[in-house]
Amino acid sequence: MESVTQSSKEENNVCPYTLWDNCVVFNGKWIQARQVRFKTKNNGQEGVWQSVHRNTKPVGAPADGVSIIAKVTKNAGLIDNGETAEQAAIRELREETGYTCSKVISQSVECFLDPGLTDDSQCFVICEIDGDAKENQNPKQHLDSTEAIEVVLVEHSKLLDYLRNMDKSIAVEAGLYAYAYGAHFAKIFGK
Amino acid sequence: MESVTQSSKEENNVCPYTLWDNCVVFNGKWIQARQVRFKTKNNGQEGVWQSVHRNTKPVGAPADGVSIIAKVTKNAGLIDNGETAEQAAIRELREETGYTCSKVISQSVECFLDPGLTDDSQCFVICEIDGDAKENQNPKQHLDSTEAIEVVLVEHSKLLDYLRNMDKSIAVEAGLYAYAYGAHFAKIFGK
């Protein structure tokens, strides 16, 4: 089980906690729930942490998934076996929006979606889309049979207002909201 | 069990899926793992979804937690029983950073940290800190005995560079990275 070796990063000298009794309390096809006991190194205070983990991360993959920032478009998808994060981003962008990436600008390190609860992770992949290219004139999605995705193009500077004015029955991902706040406050704070 | 009623939002007319066989596969003190069968409304394609849920959300709370954007400071904490998101933000800001909030500017709707995996959620609460006030001259944290938090002040326009140059053994939360990207691209794209 990976559950025992997974804590190696937390056990280096920087980590303020000692972990033990790591055990799997539920093991499904896609997710695994775990429980571990911990003690603070500075004062020996003990506690229990329950967390959840995807069982689908390919060996050697840089993260569980990718987030794609392609000017006004942001999508997320899981990295397939044998794929790099860049390949996953180009594929997911095409499948979920129909747009073809013309250039990958950069890629982030692995970062964690909900670290108090899970080690589920993603890389950000920054892409450029050539809106004048022939293949991007009438983009057509290539969705899996169980996916339901609507593509919405929003001007960058209007993203926060767009999210704020959306129908309240639509749930927004925190990462997209955080991105919109970052853009909003960059305008206000300037340098 | 809340697991059966929780899907009411997904079952309204906007939702492209029909859900059934919702069951709890692990129930711990802090988290619950669930499994539900789904079928697409448009073509009857079936699938199974495993997910995880916090057991700690107070009845009537607007979200599981809060993220606080206080100029250069961002923290997250769980909403306690009987607290509003605003009260939780002011309390967590004080406990985790030592800073006293001088004004709450705004609050987001509930948004979801890792929606493919869990319904764990947060509100963003935008705070102002009076850096000239006496109580903010030598801020002192009030941490729980098992918390380990270091406060780092970073210039808003330098946040993405700061994250990119951090020691690779330090894991970054995706929401903070997304915020930094938003600020970065707002500068590049302008209006």
TrEMBL record, chains A, B:
One of its GO terms (molecular function) is ADP-ribose diphosphatase activity. Keywords: Hydrolase. GO terms for cellular component: nucleus. This is Nudix hydrolase domain-containing protein. The keyword Magnesium does not apply. It comes from the Eukaryota. GO terms for biological process: nucleoside phosphate metabolic process; ribose phosphate metabolic process. Residues 16-176 form the Nudix hydrolase domain.
